Amino acid sequence: MDLIIFLLALLVMSTVTLTLAFYLCWYYDRRSFPQQSELPGEHPLRLLPTLLGMAKEAAALTVLVLSYPLRLIHDSSPIRSRHHGEPPVILVHGYGGNSANFLFMQWRLKWRGWSNVYSVSYTPPHINARKLSQQVVDHVEGILATTGAEKAHLVCHSMGGPLTRYALKNLGLAGKVDRVITLGSPHYGTRVAGLFPPLGAAAQLRYQSPFIRELATETTCPGGARYFSIFSNMDNFVLPVSAAVLHGAEDNIHVPYLGHCALLYSSRVMDQVERCLLTPSKAAE
After folding, report:
1. What is the DSSP track for 211-277?
2. Which domain holds residue 139?
3. Cis status, amide bond into 240, omega within 30 of 0
4. Whole-model pTM?
5. What are φ and ψ of residue 195, in 5° steps?
6. pLDDT tens figures, 200-258
7. Is residue 201 included in any domain, yes or no?
């Protein structure tokens, strides 16, 4: 018992320290590049909500680490169609994550009446982003075949957003996705990626990298899908935070005072995700 308490305390200390370290990077970026750190309609940060946001981010990161092993159970479960023909909602995690990252969101969507909700994993994170994008394509096509639906909705956290955009642009996923909803995705790269070894996807996600610039050519919202981007002014992994604003998206939605991991557990974010899933197309209106 004492060992368990010690390990939990060590975990909490580690996640709090990591959160503070990334917020130091966030603070430095805002001070060094103030124009790039501005978000549309953003109000000046207030102290108490900022501190609460940092605490929520540390808690979210702790939950994320504790739930990480649940992937073994989640990924081994067979894909079943609970409502044949209904467009599935497919949840795509970010760098270094897995399908267990979306357990709360998956439960919430099912509780709200969405029958076909699936969270998928792609590995390993250090390989080329193009190969990871192909894994996203394989998951989507497999789930569409199982559910009998023509198109899917994709909810993508962090790196899942650029991977999905690449798949829609270059890997034959165009026409198979109705909506893409991104959560804290570095659509134009992130300076934080420079802190990781320059290998594979981490190097490709650096701010304005060749891979990122390739995604921005011709159209930033490819594949005929409807795009929605949800982001926060306190995202401590997407630097500058304005890199999460997707030009050409149907809607860019700012949910303030949330860190990168906290986006996965916020009821405010969940409300916005569901609103994006239910928003009728302009043609239908």
Report:
1. HHHHHHSS-SS-TT-EEEEEE-TT-SSSSSGGGG--TT-SEEEE--S--TTGGGT-HHHHHHHHHHH
2. 70-278
3. yes
4. 0.95
5. -80, -15
6. 899 999 999 999 999 988 788 999 999 999 999 999 999 999 999 999 999 999 999 99
7. yes
